[in-house]
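Exercise: predict the fold of this chain.
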Amino acid sequence: MRFLTGGESHGPCLTGIIEGLPAGLELDKKAIDKQLERRQQGYGRGGRMAIEKDRVEFLSGLRFNRTIGSPLTLRIENRDWDNWRELMAPEGDPPPETEAVTRPRPGHADLAGGLKYNYSDLRLVLERSSARETAMRVAVGTVGRILVERFGFKFYSHVAAIGPVASPVKAEELPDLAEKVERSALRCADPRSEEAMLEEINRSGEEGDTLGGVIELVITGVPPGLGSHVHWDRRLDGRLAGALMSIQGIKGIEIGAGFSAAARRGSLTHDQMVTDREGGISRSSNRAGGVEGGITNGEAIVVRMAMKPIPTLARPLDSIDLETGLDAPGAVERSDVCAVPSVAVVAEAVAAWEIAAAFREKFGGDFMEEIEASYQHYLETVSRRLRKKQF
């Protein structure tokens, strides 16, 4: 499976095309819209979220709510387009008094993108590099999520830290705390930590500053065997890390014990194999985060992501005006104080797509019944071998 997205932050719409979906997959528009709504929530978001009301529209590849095997085309309208029709018009000439963005923001793609594409107006960079692009990635990822949820996969996320404030909630607790996380304005299941996080966000906003944080993602119901050790680009941990790092603002990825494993001995790091209640092979811990040698091992996948503070500050950092060559503050665009809770939802969708793509590679099939039969046969084979402990 593969996909492409298109669209600018203040253009008419965002679009996505998915190729490689099996025929017969039932897609519920409401399920995708729900994930889009989750992405827009979270304390610390900016004024753009008061304008947009993201809803997906299917343009091809679907008939009577079921995929037909051809490319699925998705569209999300940008309501803010009404305010930018002249400045972002795809055709015609620019308005006579168009003001170019010439003061790059430290930490943003502005300057690097302007140099790469030879732009004098940095709006041509920021329109596509904007996190608005993640709305379509949530829609696309939710299609993959719907596919694998048919087979028992579950996705959970929470905010493990905002700025210096960390939550004590552990990854293994997330499935039981899912409802509590969803009710939280910060996707934090610990009330004391949430209160401290809210105070930190408010203080940062008053000072014209921004905050990042840490997101934890857990995926359960994953069978052993997704991904492969045989080539670097088929390793699932590498694919997940690359996809999640591509989310705007993400600067670090850990799978399982991650960086903390570097300080431990091997005897305190690797997950020992034990006999489970059914007499099969299980693990005494999950420090590997559900992936060994690039392949899922049947345990829950656990990933942590570090998000940097948003680079658009109400009190901008020092920059250079590229038009005059003089010192100047960085440009100020409408932005959030903290988007960590929103990015947690984006991370679920991005990871879901990579998991779904690996699932399709493993079990093949051009229609749902074919995939279901292949998956069931594989589970029976794996279960039999684990119970017998013979290979």
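Check your answer against the key: Residues 2-388 form a domain with the Chorismate synthase, AroC fold fold (CATH 3.60.150.10).
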